[in-house]
Amino acid sequence: MTSSQLAAEFGVTRHAVNNFLRATYGPAEGAQRLLDEQQVAEVRAHFVTVAARRAAAREPRTCVVEGCERPGIGERGWCKTHRERWRRRGALEVGRPGANQLAKTHCPHGHECSPENTLVFPSEPGHRRCFTCRYGRPPEPADSPPAASAD
Ligand SMILES: [Zn+2]
Ligand SMILES: [Zn+2]
Questions:
Q1: Which of 33, 49, 60, 78 could share a disulfide with 82, CB 3.0–4.6 Å?
Q2: Facing residues of 129 across strands?
Q3: Distance (Å) from CA 53 to ligand 1 centroid
Q4: Domain span at 50
Q5: By percentage, how much of the chain surpasses pLDDT 70?
C-alpha cells in the first residue's frame, strides 16, 4: 500500500497523506514509502476523522454560543460575530455592556430581565446578572426591591 493509493481512497492529495506520515513517523527512507498494516490503519483512522469533521462543518446549524440564533460556521461552530469577537478579543464576552447588551430582554437561558430578576453587584458596576441563573430559582417578592408606591 502506498500513500498515493490511500490518498485516492479518501479523495485527498498524496501530499496530505505524506504530510501526515511524516508528522507521525518521521521522514520517509526511500522515495516511495511503503506502508505496513498498522500505518495504513492509522492513516485511514486519521482521514476518516478529517472527513467526518468536514461533513459536520458543512451542515447548517446555529451558533454554539448559548442564546445565539445566528448560523454557525466553520469547525468551531461559531457564528461570524462570535468568531470575529474571539479573533479580536480572545473572548466571547463583551467586556463592557454595549447598547445591544442593555437592550436585551432575556438572559441567555431565557429568563426575563425584569428589575426583580436582575442583580448588579457593587464590585461589577454596569454588569447585570440573572437572579434565576445565579440562585437556581426565580426571585420571590421578598427579594424584590421595594415597589414604587401606588396612588
Ligand atoms: Zn453566535
Ligand atoms: Zn437566567
A1: 78
A2: 119
A3: 20
A4: 3-57
A5: 80
Those residues whose beta carbon sits under 5 angstroms from the ion ligand 2 are 107, 109, 111, 130, 132-133
117 and 133 share one domain: yes
Task: Please state, rounded to an integer, the average pLDDT across all residues of the chain.
Answer: 80
Tell me: do 84 and 39 sit in the same domain.
no
Q: Judge if 52 and 64 occupy the same domain.
A: no
- Type of residue at 144: S
Q: Ligand 2 mean position to 85 CA, how many Å?
A: 23
Within this chain, do residues 88 and 109 fall inside the same structural domain, yes or no?
no
CB 129 within 8 A of CB 119: yes
Q: Is residue 150 part of a domain?
A: no
What is the per-residue pLDDT across 21-77, written as a single tens digit (0 to 9) for each? 999 988 877 767 788 899 899 999 999 988 888 877 666 678 888 888 888 887 778
What predicted TM-score, i.e. pTM, was given to this entire model? 0.38
Rounded distance, CA 106 to CA 68, Å?
12
Q: How far is the CA of 137 from the centre of ligand 1 (A)?
A: 26
Same domain, 122 and 107: yes
Instruction: Answer for the pair 70, 79: CB distance below 8 angstroms, yes or no.
Output: yes
